[in-house]
Design brief:
It is a single chain. This protein is an alpha/beta fold and 360 residues long. Helix content is 43%, strand content 13%. The longest helix has 13 residues.
């Protein structure tokens, strides 16, 4: 039956809504594929023009060749009927008929997926915020989903890989194309052990402008919640945010500088009830996930000595140098050196550039 799903998805003139509608009506993909125009005209709400275009294109379609092209390119896939088709994606109103992929789906935990989206022209502040929040998830089996575009998408995928999290990149073209070309290495990293690159599009489909908004429903549809890092009032990220709400998923936002035009959409979403996120734990609470972020202290704070507690308290807001710590804590030089070394070994603090210390 797979070749009928592949053949349907290879016809550019029809979309997933059309395919799902005829499949649901006939209850069998082969019957749906071979339906006559008369049969198709009986389906309520089905576009007659699309039905005619489907019949016309089907005449010149070679089922075996279309199917073998996918296999020859080393592309794997889930059809809508597959048991392993992602559960969350199947629940949306317009799920892809076929989900093509490269990579290893067994590496990704589809029960713990979070989308991270935002501006292509992201500020340094937003990228840094994404890196911070994703880094705090290190050591968990949470899977980061994004769109493999430039800006926030790239930061989300890169941060996930850097911190040993799996990631799913949803692209807006077939696998014959890499867009943007600057992310070619990122594609390869994900495909070669970092997670999955997925697309609903047959390999030869180009990354046309209208496909990017279509792609967004899959980014949010694969995920239990969507985190928006930056979004202007007219942006793809805002489209994804609205799709998240339509799909009944959790919407979360990272606040940004109010002087940045790319945060206008963020504050609109926050005013309308989106969850404000400043750390990974905010995501866990919003999604009600009983998982601890990775960067946990390796000993209970109650076990700190008096001097260690003074040092720890001094580092509450920001990193500090040795002289600052000496002034604040009033601990003599030798004892302070010993305590700093001990706390580093315990994994409570760490030394950073410029002989400064910060909490882990």
């Amino acid at each position: 039956m797979d070749k009928y799903w592949i053949a349907l998805s290879s016809i550019e003139q029809i979309d997933s809504t059309f395919i799902q509608r005829i499949y649901n009506y006939f209850g069998d993909v082969e019957t749906a594929y071979n339906a006559s125009l008369s049969d198709l005209s009986q389906i309520d709400g089905l576009s007659v023009k699309k039905a005619e275009k489907f019949i016309e294109k089907r005449k010149n379609l070679d089922l075996e060749k279309t199917y073998n092209t996918v296999l020859e390119k080393g592309i794997k896939y889930f059809t809508f009927e597959d048991m392993n088709y992602p559960k969350m994606l199947k629940e949306i109103s317009d799920p892809p008929a076929v989900l093509y992929y490269k990579g290893n789906p067994e590496l990704c935990n589809f029960e713990k997926t979070v989308a991270v989206v935002g501006s292509r022209k992201a500020s340094f502040h937003a990228k840094e915020a994404v890196e911070k929040i994703v880094s705090e998830l290190e050591g968990t089996d949470i899977c980061i989903v994004s769109g493999l575009a430039s800006g926030i998408d790239t930061s989300a995928h890169t941060s996930a890989l850097k911190h040993n999290l799996k990631t799913i990149g949803v692209i807006a073209s077939g696998f014959d194309f890499t867009y943007p070309a600057s992310n070619k290495h990122l594609y390869e990293q994900i495909e070669q052990g970092g997670g999955l690159v997925v697309s609903e599009y047959y390999p030869t489909f180009e990354p046309l402008k209208f496909r990017f908004p279509q792609r967004n429903r899959i980014v949010s549809g694969l995920s239990y919640g969507t985190l928006v890092a930056e979004a202007s009032m007219k942006s793809g990220a805002l489209i994804t945010a609205n799709l998240t709400l339509e799909q009944g998923r959790e919407l979360m936002c990272i606040p940004g500088l109010i002087s940045n035009p790319n945060t206008e959409g963020i504050y609109k979403l926050l005013k309308n009830g989106a969850t404000l996120v400043t750390c990974a734990n905010d995501i866990l609470e919003a999604l009600n996930w009983e998982i601890k972020p990775a960067k946990q202290l390796q000993m209970p704070l109650s076990d700190l000595t008096d001097d260690e507690q003074k040092i720890y308290n001094a580092l509450e807001v920001e990193e500090k140098g040795f002289d600052e710590l000496s002034t604040i804590t009033k601990i003599n030089t030798n004892d302070l050196l010993i305590n700093l070394t001990t706390m580093e070994l315990k994994g409570i603090i760490k030394q950073v550039a410029g002989d400064r210390y910060k909490r882990v």
